[in-house]
Amino acid sequence: xxxxxxxxxxxxxxxxxxxxxxxxxxxxxxxxxxxxxxxxxxxxxxxxxxxxxxxxxxxxxxxxxxxxxxxxxxxxxxxxxxxxxxxxxxxxxxxxxxxxxxxxxxxxxxxxxxxxxxxxxxxxxxxxxxxxxxxxxxxxxxxxxxxxxxxxxxxxxxxxxxxxxxxxxxxxxxxxxxxxxxxxxxxxxxxxxxxxxxxxxxxxxxxxxxxxxxxxxxxxxxxxxxxxxxxxxxxxxxxxx
Length: 241
What we know:
This protein is α+β, with helices and mostly antiparallel strands. It has two domains: 3-92 and 231-236, no CATH class; 94-229, Gcn5-related N-acetyltransferase (GNAT) (Aminopeptidase). It is built from eight helices and eleven strands. The strands form two sheets. An eight-stranded mixed β-sheet has the order 4-11-5-10-9-8-7-6, with helices on both faces. It is elongated, with a radius of gyration of 18 Å. The N and C termini lie far apart (46 Å). Keywords: Transferase.
């Protein structure tokens, strides 16, 4: 699986409000939807002096300078570090065959795929820090998409967002209520997402996880999803008062 295709798929399934191509940079207007939809990426040849133009462009968007550093961008990473940018939120992209993940289906009535999301799903997301700005990201997705509702003991227990980009599907915004964690809810939702992806023509299912989220990494490993790529961000340390 080519890394460029992975980044293309993740952006199609979790898009910024706007993209601005400026010199070698792609600047993203994230509308407060999180780092992934707000970070600048290098799309051309790199020269250290070009960083200032990216910083200016992000400031014009009303955003704090933030860069996503992908595999093979060591020169950019070193230059940002030299300017005082901190390495934050390293992310692992995990992927697996949708057919294999869906092979052991969840129990009847334990999951539902629904679009538009129900009110209880929006509430579950909000309780887990996924508010209107990230809901707006979901709304912006142009391709096939759905939300997965996980149920346990006849109660709404979790939710996730799934979207399709040609032959690959990505799961985003996985949220499970604390009292239902480690009880199989997330596994059931992932299996339901995989079946939905298969029905839509996808061959792979992928998810992005920060490296410090050990519980999530273990969960996806149990589904035989493997590391297919990594990236991290660079941002300035907050100014002290």
